[in-house]
Design goal:
Blueprint (H helix, E strand, L loop, with lengths): L4 H23 L8 H17 L23 E3 L9 E2 L2 H15 L6 E5 L4 E8 L2 E7 L5 E3 L2 H5 L15 E9 L2 H13 L8 H9 L4 H5 L4 E10 L7 H11 L8 E3 L2 H14 L9 E6 L2 H7 L9 E5 L5 E12 L5 E12 L2 E7 L3 H7 L6 E7 L3 E7 L13 H4 L11 E3 L6 E3 L8 H9 L11 H9 L14 H5 L14 H14 L4 H7 L7 H10 L3 H5 L2 H7 L24 H12 L1 H12 L13 H8 L7 E5 L6 H10 L3 E3 L8 E4 L5 H9 L3 E2 L1 H9 L7
Parallel strand pairs: 2-11, 19-20, 19-21, 21-22
Antiparallel strand pairs: 1-6, 3-9, 3-10, 4-5, 4-7, 7-8, 10-11, 12-13, 12-15, 13-14, 15-16, 17-18
Helix pairs in contact: 1-2, 13-14, 17-18, 20-21, 21-22
Bound molecules: 2-(butylsulfanyl)adenosine.
């Protein structure tokens, strides 16, 4: 039965209203009235009608929650009212001074203030006009931000239309964040897909909002909480409390919990209460925001160009707990580094139970004089990683002995019983057996990583399972695992199996096929040889054509004999090669040792058996000759890349290298150009300070095409 456009319009409006109402019930009031299945049915019915009557689709339809066509880039928008910062205070003394200043400036004993959590998220401004979400903009530099409306529309707790009582123009500001549980799941999924994981929920939220494809954003678990406002039609609320009431009234989630107090003691009391509760909130918070409640008082206090005088953000000191260190165990990492780990009596700190903390290395243990049996103070660095702060010496037992890592492991690797060594100038002990099984999973991880051979589909979990199930002992074994075995690999447990699947196995097989064609520099980096990072690998591939060439390299042999203080450019043999700083005696030595060791020889012969013979794509050992024959457009130019570009920064780096340029991580006087995308803050400032030209992506591309007119 088909509807007339008029009937369809009425039905679509009704459905949109219903869906909005259920969204509010679910996300705001936490009192859903219908099942997920019934909700989905409403949603699908609306989608069907929109497909049938595309002209009748409302731009703010709740179906926009699933995202739309990808954008080329974000538009920019100037904020009607600048988005300011809040001044930080770091101690209770400073919070007290802040309150006393308010009392003095306002000439009154009782200053009503609101205290609420400082949400660790990404700031956004949402402009609603006539109750409809019109734009969502990032903070940007505080004056102008990126328009990310399509992305924000996918966040279910952001209403796309408000209840009727909303002011005609209402700009609410708040934070977008990724709840802890969603973050953990996202990282696990990414890891299994072989994608890089996010360091923390804030980075995950920020990275997600930078996506140009809103459909991808719709798949990520983001949430929103409002805490303040920008422009508003009419007089606006007289107090922040009234503003919160308005949020509730129009259906926007506001800060929770909030406290209202009007004395110094009251304020300090609720700050302590928040400190107790903060680890159980759905978002990360490391502080309390204190705001003067009365808006007339806010106006009297005013603002500096940076921050208002009526607000302060108090950063909580990290929670510290005492516990007993009952043992020190040793972990063997990817490059064979032996890391001492404190085994602790379990203790609840900053929201989770901690029973282990890294002790980094022997020097750290010696410096803090940590001994087995000690009572230690621990905290979570950056609220995330457990760390031993110090030993409680008064509680030390008289027979506690200083800890020696070397003695503890009897001079042997705890994983393979191979020899360990400490290289000159390094603090870490390292297992020097390249075939050490503890290093296998990490070697595979390095091998498949994006900057190495980019085998998408293999992350930490898969790498570990492959080693555990004895399908791979070394990265090269990947080339010999039958696709069918990979397809049935169980990533879960026997009770709860999770099968890798044919599709994923196919993808890996195809990626391995592509890896066969990858250039020498990628292969060299993929091997995870100590001292050979991405830049060193690239430079070594400029100097050598194949892997076997490295084993017999006269350049590396000479380089390794350089005495401290002797420069490569003063050495007759080395000077013509103009070897970059990334390849020095240490890297040369490490490469030679590796390719001449039994393990290295085994790798080379395994590659030969597999028919793998990667060749350099940038072989040009003598730059004077090379420059003449290649004459690449960016030859001799060093770039620093900052900010967000239209392509991944690593891809831009590869592009610049392929055009003969160099890319450095930090700006100095030697930098020729800073290529700045959206938001490149400190590096851009540094460039301006040093007089280094800042160029856009378009200008850089013009230089690569040889069409630029940028001055030398
Ligand atoms: S009020 C002018 N309340 O922290 C101040 N901000 O460091 C108006 N933030 O730009 C903002 N939680 O993005 C306020 N409960 C909260 C907040 C909060 C996080 C962010 C906000 C602000 C930044 C300043």
């Amino acid at each position: 039965m088909s509807l007339t456009p008029l009937e369809a319009q009425a039905e679509m409006t009704r459905l949109a209203g219903e869906i909005d109402r259920h969204n509010r019930l679910y996300y705001l009031d936490a009192t859903p009235e219908i099942s997920d299945a019934d909700y989905d049915a409403l949603f699908r019915r609306l989608e069907d009608l929109e497909r049938e009557f595309p002209d009748l689709r409302h731009p703010n339809s709740p179906t926009g929650r699933v995202g739309g066509a990808p954008l080329d880039k974000f538009q920019q928008l100037r904020h009607a009212v600048p988005m300011l910062s809040i001044d930080d205070v770091f101690s209770e003394g400073e919070v007290t001074e802040f309150y006393q200043r308010l009392q003095r400036l306002l000439g009154t004993e009782r200053v009503p203030v609101m205290v609420e959590p400082k949400i660790d998220g990404v700031a956004v401004a949402l402009v609603y006009r006539n109750g409809q979400l019109e734009t969502a903009t990032t903070r940007g530099d505080g004056t102008t931000g990126d328009v990310i409306t399509e992305n924000v529309r996918t966040i279910r707790s952001v209403p796309v239309r408000l209840k009727e009582s909303a002011p005609a123009v209402l700009e609410v500001r708040g934070e977008i964040f990724m709840p802890a549980a969603g973050f953990a799941k996202l990282n696990q999924d990414r890891d299994e897909a072989g994608l890089p994981t996010f360091a923390n929920p804030r980075n995950a939220a920020a990275g997600t909002l930078k996506q140009l494809d809103s459909r991808e954003v719709a798949r990520r678990p983001l949430d929103f909480i409002a805490h303040s406002f920008g422009q508003m039609e009419g007089a606006g609320p007289a107090t922040m409390s009234e503003f919160h009431a308005l949020l509730k009234e129009v259906g926007i989630p506001g800060s929770e919990p909030v406290w209202h107090v009007d004395t110094l003691d009251g304020m300090l009391g609720v700050i302590h209460e928040l400190d107790e509760r903060r680890h159980h909130l759905p978002y990360g918070t490391d502080g309390a925001v204190i705001k003067v409640d009365d808006r007339a008082a806010q106006t009297r206090l005013g603002a500096t160009s940076r921050a208002p005088r009526w607000a302060a953000a108090y950063k909580f000191p990290p929670e510290q707990k005492e516990t007993r260190l009952h043992a020190i165990t040793i972990q063997v990492g990817r490059t064979g580094v032996l890391t001492p780990v404190a085994e602790l009596d379990p203790v609840f700190v900053s929201g989770t139970t901690v029973s282990r903390a890294t002790l980094h290395n022997q020097d750290e243990i010696t410096r803090k004089d940590v001994r087995v049996g000690d009572t230690v103070v621990i905290e979570k660095a950056g609220e995330i990683i457990p760390a031993v702060v110090k030993v409680v010496l008064e509680k030390r037992s008289p027979d506690a002995v200083p800890f020696s890592l070397f003695d503890h492991v009897g001079g042997l690797c705890p994983s393979c019983s191979g020899p360990i060594a400490k290289e000159e100038g390094f603090v870490a002990w390292r297992c020097v057996n390249f075939a050490c099984p503890a290093q296998a999973a990490s070697r595979i991880r390095q091998f498949v990583s994006r900057k190495a051979l980019d085998i998408e589909g293999i992350g930490s979990t898969v790498a570990e399972k492959l080693v555990e199930r004895e399908l791979a002992h070394s990265p090269l074994d990947l080339f010999e695992i039958p696709e069918a075995s990979l397809a049935v690999l169980n990533l879960g447990t026997d009770e709860e199996p999770r099968i890798y699947g044919e599709k994923n196995a196919r993808k890996v097989a195809e990626a391995l096929q592509r890896a066969r064609m990858m250039p020498l520099s990628r292969w060299l980096y993929a091997m995870g040889i100590p001292q050979i990072g991405e830049s060193a690998a690239r430079e070594m591939a400029r100097l050598h054509e194949t892997l076997p060439d490295l084993a017999t390299s006269a350049i590396l042999a000479e380089l390794r004999t350089l005495k401290t203080g002797e420069r490569k450019d003063d050495n007759a043999l080395l000077a013509p090669y103009r070897i970059a700083s990334e390849v020095g005696p240490a890297a040369a030595s490490s490469a030679l040792d590796f390719f001449r060791s039994a393990a290295g020889k085994a790798v080379l012969s395994h590659m030969e058996r597999l028919g793998l013979n990667p060749r350099s794509d940038n072989f040009a050992p003598r730059p004077e000759e090379a420059a003449a024959s290649y004459d690449l457009p960016l030859a001799g130019k060093t770039f620093v890349i900052t900010g967000t570009l239209s392509i991944d920064r690593d891809d831009m780096k590869a592009l610049i290298l392929s055009k003969g340029g160099k890319v450095s991580g930090s700006v100095s006087k030697k930098t020729h150009f800073v290529l700045a995308g959206e938001g490149g803050g400190s590096k851009r400032d540094k460039a301006i300070e040093l007089g280094v030209p800042v160029i856009t992506e378009g200008e850089a591309r013009a230089m690569m095409d040889g069409t630029d007119s940028t001055p030398e």
